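User: Show me an example of a complex going from sequences to structure tokens.

Assistant: Sure. Here are the input components:
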Amino acid sequence: GAGVSQTPSNKVTEKGKYVELRCDPISGHTALYWYRQSLGQGPEFLIYFQGTGAADDSGLPNDRFFAVRPEGSVSTLKIQRTERGDSAVYLCASSLQRDRTDTQYFGPGTRLTVL
Amino acid sequence: KQEVTQIPAALSVPEGENLVLNCSFTDSAIYNLQWFRQDPGKGLTSLLLIQSSQREQTSGRLNASLDKSSGRSTLYIAASQPGDSATYLCAVRTGANNLFFGTGTRLTVIP
């Protein structure tokens, strides 16, 4: 079956611009996660959705970052007034979330470059 | 805050060798530990998941062990192949629902 998909695969933008990154989870997965991976580092947690609501947004670095999941499926990560330090690969994952033993399945990521 | 460390950061071995990758974590109150593989420019592929009540998991040439009390895990790869070349990440799941990742070990298997 289809895995987690993310679009675009690459995004180049200029400092100060607004960007949206999309994640399409595996069908039926109620939990969705966003992570950010900087060069040479492991992924770092940003936000977790259970259904339509953000259950934990403690990883969002500041108020320029926002994410939505209005129908409990597709999610969009929104970054306002982008800065060069936002350049990274943004990864999305989903899981069935029956309990905390579930495996998270990752998408291929969106590579964001802020010039 | 949970911290995850992976040693070594990089490793090169000739084809056919067995090898061990190490992962340590500071908070032993985990639900599970997961090993991932990441190829350049790609997402993460889950290799093995060990629940906190388990000691090890095996899949093909891969064997992962977990010593929760000492905060350690190892990933053993038998008879390495050039196709095993990738970055290997370990991640732990704690009381929160997110994963805490290490910085990875970049493995190169030389033909």
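The lines above are the inputs; the final block is the predicted structure for all two components together. DSSP finds no helices and eleven strands in chain A.
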